Amino acid sequence: CDQTPLQAVLLEIGRELESCKGEGNVADYIPELGNVNPDKFGIHLTTLASEHFAYGDTEEKFSIQSISKVFSLALVFEREGERLWQRVGVEPSGNPFNSLSQLEYEAGIPRNPFINAGALVICDHLISHCSMPKQTMMGFFRTLAGNPLIGFNQRVYESEKAHSYRNRALINLMKSYGNITNDLELVLDLYFFICSIEMTCRELAQAASFLANSGVNPLTRQQVVSSSKAKRINTIMQLCGFYDEAGEFSFKVGLPGKSGVGGGIMAVHPGKYSIAAWSPRLNAKGNSCLAMKALELFTTRTKMSIF
Ligand code: GLN
Predict the structure, then answer these.
(1) Is 3-302 CATH 3.40.710.10?
(2) Domain chopping of the chain, boundaries
(3) Reduced to 3 states, what is the DSSP secondary structure of residue 269?
């Protein structure tokens, strides 16, 4: 793509969205997440040819929250292979990210790895596979983003731990069905840790780029996951990345993507680019109002959606 138009499109979108800044509310069920400036907005795109285009607060760290679920899935799927799908499904849930109801009538098997229950099963696998799962995850993010300084936010981690009633209910229910093998506290602790990792839009777009590149990290040329696994992870993002708003995101944006309650959204166009947008105010489904709008405008104006 010609550089000037892409940069110009981001600039135009950023300016246009200034007028929508008051929409939605910052997540406060994890109290520490409420302590951000709600009107921050950034969008960063990186192509597989290592071109970078950005607008707004793209160098500011934010809590990646559920976006982390894509990366923990990638690590575990690569190690566990197809057996993974015996304990977690690949169907859209059509329910909120922290919903308990399907677990009950589906015998403790979460619908997919991107709702909280599914991500807890993935964390259980991580503990079984790695002797130091926190270090392994952190190393994974640092390598993918090309930044050894990526870290986590202790206050967010503790805040989530202190208000973890839903996640505790989910893991206990799954345990009762025999779908959690390690110590519950260890699994929860790892989950909160991964959710509290902080990254910038630029780092997140870079970290996602292996999914646009048939599983190969474009920075290191290392095969992170096989190309078939990259295809499958993208498919799950397409179908399940936005909980009960996955259809809406697909419909409006037309890219596989994943959101988090910190207000971030990352998305990929296989073979072309990866993109991350962030703005803390969320809609009722827990997805960033402005980030979603920005991506919708971006793929509509550039026609750079997968459809
Ligand atoms: N850490 C959050 C939770 O477990 C993640 C939710 C999200 O980003 N959708 O509730």
Answers:
(1) yes
(2) 3-302
(3) strand
